């Protein structure tokens, strides 16, 4: 598959392009995705097709969302994959993934996400979790660490809370820079996201939950009595059983939900 890297396409910095070429890593990612005939598969940012090609070999149809017009055009006219592909040329951050639903088949989404837009793209994808079976993404290792971090960790933050609100997040594999061309300056990792059932998501307003996280983690060294002072006071925190002298990283996901739900009930 590395020969595809010599077909005249140069990585474009503005799109955050780094093309995966390590066969062992590719095999592990495809095994994690577990593509099968009849699956409703969606790849974000297929690039030169390093993962697209082996997935196509195992299934009968694949949707791909590609921002780069030249790469989208390549896939449309690919001699082997084109019959199995539906190519959507456009920005994944604006794409309506629910438009790809068919019958009762939930989406299996995967991709090597551009590191410069990975967090806002993840938040966009969280809007569609009820239509998703699972997601697998290559991301900057630091981002994956934040997604899976628990309370008390320095990596625990807004991305941790919101990811874990919507999904079970499981690290799959770490990927060093030499697995890409051009090699990025950071380590990468693949994360598996399995959406939680609606019954496990108890926030009354997810935008409000996100706002609480933004305020709480905006200045991490501040205690909750200060970082959340725009939303509720010390006595109200104590009423929720939360110590105002704690910092945001000490709270659990459930406590963030309880704060957001209290605000929903009392600040409307």
TrEMBL record:
SMART domains: rADc
Domain of life: Bacteria
Enzyme class per UniProt: transferase
Domain Ribosomal RNA adenine methylase transferase N-terminal: from-to ranges: 25-197
Main location: cytoplasm
GO molecular-function term, one example from the UniProt record: 16S rRNA (adenine(1518)-N(6)/adenine(1519)-N(6))-dimethyltransferase activity
Binding site for S-adenosyl-L-methionine: 18, 20, 45, 66, 91, 112
A UniProt-annotated Pfam family: RrnaAD
Keywords: Cytoplasm, Methyltransferase, RNA-binding, rRNA processing, S-adenosyl-L-methionine, Transferase
Cellular localization per UniProt: Cytoplasm
Enzyme Commission code(s) on record: 2.1.1.182
Record GO cellular component, one term: cytosol
Record's catalysed reaction(s): adenosine(1518)/adenosine(1519) in 16S rRNA + 4 S-adenosyl-L-methionine = N(6)-dimethyladenosine(1518)/N(6)-dimethyladenosine(1519) in 16S rRNA + 4 S-adenosyl-L-homocysteine + 4 H(+)
Entry similarity comment: Belongs to the class I-like SAM-binding methyltransferase superfamily. rRNA adenine N(6)-methyltransferase family. RsmA subfamily.
Function: Specifically dimethylates two adjacent adenosines (A1518 and A1519) in the loop of a conserved hairpin near the 3'-end of 16S rRNA in the 30S particle. May play a critical role in biogenesis of 30S subunits.
Name the record gives this protein: Ribosomal RNA small subunit methyltransferase A
